[in-house]
Amino acid sequence: MSSSTLRVKFQAAYHCSVFNWLRERRLEVAHQRLARGWSVQQAADFVGYRHATNFATAFRARYGVAPSQRG
Questions:
Q1: Does the keyword Cell division apply (predicted)?
Q2: The domain 22-71: what is its CATH number?
Q3: DSSP readout, 5-39?
Q4: Domain extents for the chain?
Q5: Which residue from 17, 47, 37 is spatially nearest to 59, judged by alpha carbons?
């Protein structure tokens, strides 16, 4: 299957891009870890963010609060 075919089929099935779907899953996992008492840096590292600031920006955009305010 070509990458363009995969993109089209994924969009049809999930109503979002692969990138957006993956970002949502990563943020959901990070949210769960923060609720368990993990630090922002630990949660960011666990879900694959190299920089906590990029993670915090994505988290704030998704949940409306800074990750340090969750947990």
A1: no
A2: 1.10.10
A3: HHHHHHHHHHSS-HHHHHHHHHHHHHHHHHHTT--
A4: 22-71
A5: 47
